[in-house]
Amino acid sequence: MLQVGNEYNSFDELNDAIRDYSEQHSVLFVKDDCKKVASENAKLGPNTTKYPDRFVYRFVRFRCKHGGDVRTNGRGTRPNQRSFKTECPSELSVSANRKKDKMVVLKFVDEHNHEISR
Length: 118
Ligand SMILES: [Zn+2]
What we know:
The protein is built from 2 helices and 5 strands; from the N terminus they run E-H-E-H-E-E-E. With 118 residues, it is of the alpha+beta class. It has one domain. The protein has a 5-stranded antiparallel sheet. Strand 4 and strand 5 (102-109) form a beta hairpin. The longest helix has 15 residues, at 11-25. The radius of gyration is 17 Å and the shape is elongated. The two termini are 18 Å apart. Zinc ion (ZN) binds at residues 27, 64, 66-67, 88, 90, 112, 114. Zinc ion (ZN) is lined by residues 27, 64, 66-67, 88, 90, 112, 114.
């Protein structure tokens, strides 16, 4: 069960949770944005606790695959329209927490603006 505040020991664990959720709910989350642990650690000073490699990401955001689907009717497209994508609001953001030594779910929006195939 995915929810805000969930803690995971590694990216593998998080990935398993996402996979289970995706299978149960027939949605497909794809990585939308991320910051790698390695590049973040490189910025930290020598006396600072580093992010463990098992987190892989210091921050990672997933979005529903349908969020990127192009859906046009071929009519009524306004010239100033910023995007013609179906912007699905569903989102899962996870951040590494060095104090807790865990990956923590910061944001989880379990809402879709399209039909979910079952
Ligand atoms: Zn969606």
